[in-house]
UniProtKB/TrEMBL annotation:
<dbReference type="GO" id="GO:0008745">
    <property type="term" value="F:N-acetylmuramoyl-L-alanine amidase activity"/>
</dbReference>
<feature type="domain" description="MurNAc-LAA">
    <location>
        <begin position="116"/>
        <end position="270"/>
    </location>
</feature>
<dbReference type="Pfam" id="PF01520">
    <property type="entry name" value="Amidase_3"/>
</dbReference>
<dbReference type="GO" id="GO:0030288">
    <property type="term" value="C:outer membrane-bounded periplasmic space"/>
</dbReference>
<dbReference type="InterPro" id="IPR050695">
    <property type="entry name" value="N-acetylmuramoyl_amidase_3"/>
</dbReference>
<feature type="compositionally biased region" description="Polar residues">
    <location>
        <begin position="30"/>
        <end position="41"/>
    </location>
</feature>
<keyword id="KW-0378">Hydrolase</keyword>
<dbReference type="GO" id="GO:0009253">
    <property type="term" value="P:peptidoglycan catabolic process"/>
</dbReference>
<protein>
    <recommendedName>
        <fullName>N-acetylmuramoyl-L-alanine amidase</fullName>
        <ecNumber>3.5.1.28</ecNumber>
    </recommendedName>
</protein>
<feature type="region of interest" description="Disordered">
    <location>
        <begin position="30"/>
        <end position="67"/>
    </location>
</feature>
<dbReference type="InterPro" id="IPR002508">
    <property type="entry name" value="MurNAc-LAA_cat"/>
</dbReference>
């Protein structure tokens, strides 16, 4: 049983029975389980589950009045992330036949909770937030990936998370506003599935990307990133490099280098979806 059907059974059924009655509930459940329609050929599914194309939600970090990190040469993170995310989306759709959406496709501000909500509403199978932040130390460079953890894996990841979680200040938003209240037992059951899939995704992506791209020292880390808190969507935050490092900034300023990063990310995201954890 997948994460969303577990969510529906534990919390949706009692509410739905009160509001709509058994007949309407059965029809609604059937529609939810069918998933979004797509012209793409669906990937094989495990027996007993309806076929549905995999959906990846790409989240270009920052945007609008929030530039994110700014390099010594004026490179803005919000531009780097949007350019890479657009190219990853194009490659996933054209080369890998993966249904892909963006949380933002232009230069606009999105609160962290809104980014999570977009992925959950779309019933995404994987959420990848793309960044190119300022690292705690100027010598840090290379690609890295992060999963959610209430306890950070190290001080480097903790400081990155604290920095990222301040993004909502540009929109005048309370970072706690709009968070859905979920029963503890439901959150525990659902989050266990989600966390395992997130860990598989992090490992697959980093190991694959390391064949072609420079990696940060200890490239698989974890911290309390607000944008990774969907309890039912496996989520990763990928740092494509750090604009605080002159060499990384020089690389990320170059369109050809960004295309190369996008090709690797698209290839490895497609590999993640082929793992049995996402079947």
């Amino acid at each position: 049983m997948d994460r969303r059907r577990l969510l529906a059974l534990v919390i949706g059924v009692p509410v739905a029975l009160r509001l709509w009655g058994p007949a309407s509930l059965a029809q609604s459940a059937e529609q939810r389980m069918a998933g979004p329609q797509s012209s793409n050929k669906p990937l094989p599914r495990s027996p007993g589950r309806p076929p549905r194309s995999r959906l990846v939600m790409l989240d270009p970090g920052h945007g609008g009045p929030d530039p994110g990190a700014i390099g010594l040469h004026g490179t803005q993170e919000k531009d780097v992330t949007l350019d890479i995310a657009r190219e990853v989306a194009r490659l996933l759709i054209d080369r890998h036949r993966v249904v892909t959406r963006l949380t933002r496709s232009d230069d606009r501000f999105l609160a962290l909770d809104d980014r999570v909500a977009i992925a959950r509403k779309a019933e995404a199978d994987l959420f990848v937030s793309i960044h190119a932040d300022s690292a705690p130390n100027v010598g840090a460079r290379g690609l890295s990936a992060y999963t959610l953890s209430t306890k950070a894996s190290d001080s480097f990841a903790s400081r990155l998370a604290q920095q990222e979680n301040q993004a909502d200040r540009f929109g005048g938003r309370d970072s706690k506003a709009g968070r859905q209240i979920v029963k503890d037992i439901l959150r525990d059951l659902t989050a266990r599935h989600t966390r395992n899939a997130s860990l598989v995704a992090r490992q697959t992506l980093v190991r694959g990307a390391g064949r072609d791209l420079r990696l940060l020292d200890n490239p698989m880390r974890a911290a309390n990133f607000a944008v990774l808190k969907a309890p039912d969507v496996p989520s990763l935050l990928v740092e494509t490099g750090f604009l605080s490092n002159p060499q990384d900034e020089e690389m990320l300023r170059t369109p050809d280098a960004r295309r190369r990063v996008a090709r690797v990310l698209a290839r490895e995201i497609a590999a993640v979806l082929s793992h049995r954890q996402f079947a």
